[in-house]
Amino acid sequence: SHISPELFEGADGLASGTLAFAGFSDGNFQLSFHFKTQEPGGKVQAPFFQTFLPYLPNMEGVRMLRSDVAQGKAVRFKSALIRLDTTRPGELKALLLMTLPEYTVDLNVDFTIRLGHETAFSQIVQLWKRLKTSAP
Q: Which residue, of 15, 54, 126, 129, has the fewest CB within 10 Å?
């Protein structure tokens, strides 16, 4: 599944954090992206969760979440933390912690993003702009 800036279209909430980037002459780069939302949280559109749903346990709250995502509903969260760090060229280690009180679900998703696409950096910049401009 692909992660792209469009997944954050219509996202709402206030976040604070840091973004550090360094580019090297060999074309590689180092990135550190750490953001945390403040209560009362916000919302994320359903497509954001498509990537994670297959890996979540089959429990009542997750079944309700799957149903709402299938219907294209926005999902409210109370708190969220996202951390991306380069681990090697072309690869980011990611951590997503998100509390979804409506579903009694606390996401704790640790995953790897492989940047095999030549426009990966520009996609990261687009994501940063989208997060920055969506803050109230």
A: 54
